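step=predict obj=GDSL family lipase n=222
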Amino acid sequence: MTITVRPGSTVMFTGDSITDCQRLESEDGLGFGYPLRVAGEWGLRHPDRPVTWLNTANGGDKVMDLEARWQTDVLDARPDVVSILVGVNDMGWHTLDPKGYVIPVEEFEAGYDRLLAPLAEAGTKLILIEPFLLPIHGVVEAGAGVALIGEEERKEWRADLDPKIQVVRTLARTYGAHLLAADGMFAGLTATTGPEYWAADGVHPTPAGHAALAAAWLRLVA
């Protein structure tokens, strides 16, 4: 069952850099990634149903960072639909920040639950996008060049991420949210193209990766 987006609705995207995509530098505030593609395609398909599109994602955010700004950046806007993609920084924080630590899955789950509870109470429609990690090859820079991520680091990250993906899936069921199974989607897409085609560093989508996310997102709404 899809979410019906009615004329005059406010739809908000939030999360980390995958959603941020330099939104503050763009005239429409949506950035260059999948939120812009969703808004554009929706406008093409439904000129009779205008929507206010918002993007409040911040690069580098973890669940705890979202929680710190949740009231002012999300709840106060009273959106009708909220789409959340967060978790990759909860996975790699201990690698990328000297002050970071391995965030336990229990901490991740409790914080994410606190994000969702007030939205559910307000009757907000929810779309949860799984965090994802593509199995690219070689060594890449991460965290604005503060760390080098190779095969061993990606194995460690994957072991940390998998239970957090399960948390997102569980919370989607608990709150009746629509789940965009992005990790599984990209795993399927890489079978024919290789992972770098969709995310050169394994985390941040290429234009094709953003297009795939947008197409999957739009299948959840009507």
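step=describe
The two ends are 9 Å apart (CA to CA).
step=end
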